[in-house]
Each structure stands twice: as C-alpha cells, then as structure tokens.
Write a structure and sequence with these properties.
Among the domains are: 42 residues, Hemocyanin, N-terminal domain (Up-down Bundle), CATH 1.20.1370; 142 residues, Rossmann fold, CATH 3.40.50.10380; 186 residues, Rossmann fold. Helix content is 44%, strand content 9%. α20 crosses α23 and α21 runs antiparallel to α23. The chain is built from 24 helices and 13 strands. The strands form 3 sheets. The chain has a 6-stranded parallel β-sheet with strand order 7-6-8-9-10-13, sandwiched between helices. A 5-stranded parallel β-sheet has the order 1-3-2-4-5. The protein has a two-stranded antiparallel ribbon with strand order 11-12. The longest helix has 21 residues. The protein is an alpha/beta fold and 543 residues long. The chain starts with 8 loop residues before the first helix and ends in an 8-residue tail after the last helix.
Length: 543
C-alpha cells in the first residue's frame, strides 16, 4: 500500500483514489476506511450498472451531464469506465452538443471547482498561481479565454466547461492518462452584458482588455508554463478568431502548442474530404472549395487543405486558387480593405459579391465542396444546395457549425434537395436519414477524432513542437478507418463506437511522423504502435 499517500476520508475525497464501494477488505483495513464505506465490495462493472440505472432516470442530457460531472469529482476511474463503455452514447453528453447548454448555464449548474482559474488581475504572479496546481507533471494544458465558445460567442468564465470537456475526451477517446491533464481559464473579462449582470456569473466583472494588454498577459502565461510545467503542450481552445490565429503564429515555433479550432477542425474536415474523394473516385487535387465563414476555423481549414494539396504536388499558389471564401460581408476578394492579414491569401481578384449571393457563387465557381463554418443555422438553404447539385454529380456538403441549431444544413435537407446525391457531414451528430427508400449515415466531422490522438502522440513521444504535418497525418489515418461499405452509405467518418481503436492507430501514425521529423524527446521504439498501446489509460482499480 506504499503508493497510497492518504488514508481515511482523505482517500474518499480524492477522485483519483476513491473507489467508493470498490475497496477490498484488506484495503479498508490498511487505509483506515472500515466503517467509512459500506461493507459490500463491488466490482467496477457492478458500479457501472448502478450508474447506468441512475442515468436512465434522468430527464435530460443536461441532467446527465451534471450527474457525470459530479461522478468525476468523486470517482475518476468509474467516470471514465462509464464514458468508455459506450462512447456513441456518452460523448455527446460530456461534450458537444450538451456542453453548449452546460456552458450557457455554467454558473448556475456549478458544483465545485475543476481546473485552474487564472485572472488577468494576477499579472506578475502567474507563476505562483500555476504552482498552486497539485500535479507537477502536467503534460497537456487546455486553455481558453471564453472568447468564442462553440457557435455561442463570448461566454467569458462560462467557457471553462470547454477545456474540462476537451481533456475528458483526451482520455475517453484516446486513452491519455487523466493525471497529467490540466483545464484552464485565462479570465480577462467578458463583453457579454447578460453575463456581467448575472449575479451567479463566476468570472471577472469587467470588459475585455485591448489586444496589447491581453497578449502581454498571454505572454507571461506561456513563459510561466515553460518554467512550471516543462514538457507541457499548450492546447489553445475557443479564443476569438483573430486571437486564435495570431496567438498560434506567435508561439508555435517557440513552444509546444497548437490550436484545436484552427488545426483540429482543419484535420477532421480534411479526413472527410479524403473519404469524399474515395467515394467519388477522385483525388484531393481534383477538388475545389467554397467556404461560408472565414474566421479562425475557416482559414485554418483552408490552410491545412492547401498544405495537403501541396503534398499532392500542387504549388501553394495553385492550391489557394482552388479556395473561395465568404465572410459576414461577402466574398473575400482583392478590392476589399477590411480583411485581416490571414484572410488576404484567399482574396482573389473578383467583383464584389454579397453574402446573400452564395447560390450565385456556387453556379459561377462550381465548387465540388461546400464548407460551412459560419455559425448561421440554415445558411445552406434549398437554393444553395440545389445549385451544388446542379454543378456536381456528387456534391460534398459539410455543415460544420455547432451546436445543432447552428448547423448550416441538416442531412435530411441535403439529401432531399440533392436528390440523394450529396455526400454530407456535420459538426454535430445527426440520426440516419431515409430518402427514396435508401438509408444514409451522416457523419460527424467532430474534432474529437483528431486532437486526442494528436495529444496522445505528443504526450507519448514528448514532442518538442506541434506541426500542421501532424494534423494532415492524423486526417489520413482517421480517413483510412472508414470501410468501403460505410462509404457506400455516405459515412465519411469512422463509427464512434470504435473511437479508441481509431485513435490508437491514428496516434501511432502521428508518433511515427514525430520521430521521422526529429521532434521527439525520447528514443524511437522498435514498434511504435505497441509503444502507444502501452501508454493507454484503462479505467480499472489497481491492486
């Protein structure tokens, strides 16, 4: 029992140690737990049965989310046993789409703290705050400032639900040990007046600072992480679009970091595109793309697509020529003076077009693929989808915005308006659709196929940097997990029920690239996949 550093109620209050009714008689004696827990000694499987029964009696997924969060706060092993027992059922509860509602109500459903809260008012003392975290070997730190949560906008401190949920997916989807994962909120205020006036809001009651002040704060944070948690990868999540792109560029060549909204979203979209090409019998270089949405996700996606096209032999200029983009104003074109730096490579010479001209743009540019990252529900209306079907035998339609009500199109509409010819994916999960006597399986282009596997590769190899090549490699590995039969039913992504095996294979492929590119902090093992499997966390009570 030498690995048990606590006894008595201290054990029961530590979710990484607590087994509730799972302690053996000898453990109860050794840990001074006799009488503090029931006499029964239950297996993890029996405890799982009880939890599933509890969940069946909850009236909504938000209530199930609250219950599971409480379970995580008390028994980490049992929590992950539940999630990993049926990922198809539970991933949408602990993350998207339920997480959106949870973040909107975060201060109202709050039970107890999880993660680290770093206020901009602690400037000059960031290192001291980081040192308050009890786990010293932090391997991945997922951090948000709540600036752009899903498609819901500025939620300030309510956005803390996102890094908490993202890191749960590292473990549940890819088997990364939860011990070295740290969710963080960099609280620099919020411009959301409703939250500032909410008495139960948990964040700073002030407006967001100017960019220069914010970036100075983030600089101090990034520098402090290198000192307090050496070897830690910083996962930026749900920052405002301009900040997401600029902060990634600021740090990516200096420290181990990445932005999931920029690179993870791009990776999973690329995976879907690769399988759309398989279904059509084309190559990626044969495709052309029209985006609705030109923020951090859209630009990151376009950049990664272009990088993949360069890998297939195109010049970067030729790859970018295949991409046209609309933002809230209209077409990105060369005469516009309101574009930010990262949008300009996609502003080609063309007459101005308003956002309302999307269907007209489809007929003019004749893209093979329509991608939505606009957070505008229903933006791909009948006119737009029918235009895509008019210029393509198999139009590819990817409505990636979430939560559900933000999706640019539903699969039912996409299949109906294209006469059943569309290859469709969304950012959220939709049920199978029957159209004209045939059943289609709309895939979910969710980042959780990508970032946990990349995270596992980073943690296992102790990678010094994170590159776009890693996300391209991950996309190809994820795409390869879809069978020909699944493709025939319109499925562009692997089944969620098999997500752990998909991510282990993907992590091994990414890890191979880390070694090939000389970015690993350890010696190369003889069998990389076996090495990754040896790192996988399994929720079980050790002896």
């Amino acid at each position: 029992m030498t690995h048990w550093m606590k006894t008595g109620r201290d054990v029961l209050l530590d979710p990484s140690l607590n087994r509730s009714t799972g302690f053996t008689e000898s453990q109860k004696e050794a840990l001074a737990l006799t009488g503090l827990v029931p006499d029964a000694v239950e297996t993890l499987e029996l405890q799982l049965t009880r939890v599933l029964s509890h969940l069946d009696h909850k009236s909504s997924d938000l209530e199930r989310y609250i219950y599971l969060t409480n379970l995580l706060d008390h028994n980490e092993t049992l929590f992950f046993k539940v999630i990993m027992s049926d990922p198809t059922r539970f991933l949408p509860i602990v993350y998207d789409p339920t997480i959106g509602e949870a973040c909107l109500k975060f201060g109202h459903i709050y039970r107890q703290p999880r993660g680290l809260y770093l206020s901009i008012e602690r400037r000059g003392k960031v290192r001291e705050v980081l040192r308050n975290w009890p786990e010293k070997d932090v391997r991945v730190l997922c951090v948000t400032n709540g600036g752009r949560i899903l498609g819901l906008g500025d939620l300030g401190a309510n956005g803390m639900g996102i890094p908490i949920g993202k890191l749960q997916l590292y473990t549940a989807a890819a088997g990364v040990s939860p011990r070295g994962l740290l969710p963080m909120l960099l609280d620099a205020g919020t411009n959301n007046e409703e939250l500032l006036n909410d008495p139960l809001y948990l964040g700073l009651r002030r407006k967001r600072p100017p960019t220069k002040e914010l970036y100075a704060f983030v600089d101090e944070f990034v520098e402090a992480v290198q000192e307090v948690f050496p070897g830690c990868c910083i996962h930026f999540e749900d920052w405002t679009g301009v900040d997401a792109v600029h902060l990634l560029a600021r740090y990516r060549d200096k420290v181990c970091c990445y932005n999931d909204d920029v690179q993870g979203t791009a990776g999973i979209t690329l995976a879907g595109m690769l399988n759309a090409c398989r279904a059509k019998g084309t190559k990626l270089r044969d495709e052309s793309f029209l985006f609705l949405g030109a923020g951090s996700a859209g630009i990151g996606l376009a950049d990664l697509l272009c990088a993949a096209l360069v890998e297939e032999g195109l010049t970067l200029e030729a790859a970018r020529a295949k991409v046209h983009m609309f933002d809230v104003v209209g077409l990105l074109e060369a005469s516009r003076t309101d574009l930010v730096d990262f949008q300009k490579p996609y502003a080609h010479p063309h007459a101005p077009m308003a956002r309302a001209d999307l269907a007209k743009a489809v007929l003019e540019f004749q893209p093979t693929t329509l991608i939505g990252v606009s957070t505008t529900g229903g933006a791909f209306d009948r006119e737009v989808v029918e235009a895509m079907a008019k210029v393509n035998a198999r139009p590819v339609i990817m409505a990636l915005s979430n939560p559900t009500e933000k999706a640019e199109c539903t699969p039912g509409d996409a299949y109906a308006w294209s006469g059943g010819r569309a290859l469709f994916a969304a950012g959220v999960q939709f049920d199978p659709v029957t159209y004209d006597g045939r059943t289609y399986l709309p895939g979910q282009a969710n980042n959780f196929y990508i970032f946990p596997a990349v995270g596992m590769a980073i943690v296992a190899t102790k990678a010094r940097r994170v590159t776009d090549r890693m996300f391209i490699r991950a996309a190809r590995a994820v795409a390869a997990r879809v069978t020909s039969d699944q493709l025939a039913h319109g499925l562009l992504y692997p089944l969620q029920a098999d997500i752990l095996e998909t991510e282990i294979k993907t992590a091994a492929s990414v890890a191979e690239l880390v070694f090939d590119d000389g970015l690993a902090g350890i010696d190369r093992p003889g069998d990389i996949e076996a090495f990754i499997r040896s790192q996988v966390y399994v929720p079980a009570y050790s002896h």
